[in-house]
Amino acid sequence: MADAQETVLELFYGRWRSQVLYAGVTLDIFDIFDVAERAPMHATQIARELGLDCALGYRLLRALGSLGLLQEHDAHAFSITEAGELLRSDHPQSMRDAILLREGPEHTAVWKHLPAIVRDGRQDGFVREFGTTAFDHATRELSYGKAFDAGMSSQSNLQTTWVIEALRDYDFSSVANLCDVGGGRGHLLCHLLVRYPHVVGSVLERPSVIGDGQMLWADKLEVGGRCRYIAGDMFVEVPAADAYIMKMILHDWNDDECVRILRNLHRRASRAGRIFIVEHVIPDSGGPDYAALFDIHMMCWGTGRERTVQEYRSLLQASGWEFAAIWFPPNGAIGVIEGTKFESP
Length: 345
Known about the structure:
By secondary structure, this protein is of the alpha/beta class. The chain is built from 17 helices and 10 strands. The chain is globular.
């Protein structure tokens, strides 16, 4: 009984933890620390520099300490931990903007519709809450659009590392032209171009995402001569390429929508074309897994879902592709499903 109670209590406190985390990020608490000197700061100094109430600020700092993001020292002094550094805006793998998106007002609001979604058999808490899809809401409400783009970029910091680790032994020698469909500002593609200097690439994205050239990764990583950005719609037309990669794209859409996208890619792929689908893959074992929780987020956020390997195999087959393999990084955090173009002789 004690173990059962502990399990339920840990779940019970889950929302409190995530909201404490959100408050700490929103108030820029993690950015206040000097990570070079790593000297503790007094709670009063932190509150003064951030414009916080001293007494309530200390209580928040103490709670962040209980989560392992800060460390409390004598006399109400605090230092940042290695985990807390991941929430700084200047960390190369910062999760700051991802937290602001996931625990922000829009995503908090759509989750309250989960019981009704499951009861009614109709997904999409965004439509229920705001009367429009998440993508349309991002276009109409600039604050959410900005938070969404920043949140996606934030998650790319980790996801790109995972993809490169998953494909570390893959032979890219026959890939000359790689297209990242829905590739945002090119974080993944440009890092792949750095790793494979013989490859040229393109990013297909919404015009609003790639409109600001200063935010794009091609010049930052000095691969601008091998990378072009194309404004377009993957449901309508995609650039020709001999390989495509899609990171966290198909989970946004239902099966029929995924097949439409995959058929467009198949039509434009070279004769020996291939595709890499990067997603959180639900294990066949049915055991506890992060992907199963992400699947519920997709249920609330839109029409999509997370899938098993077999379900991705079925999508590939329905759209003219043939399942070839699946690749994982050492931590198993994400899967890269490889498909090859199948054409009857």
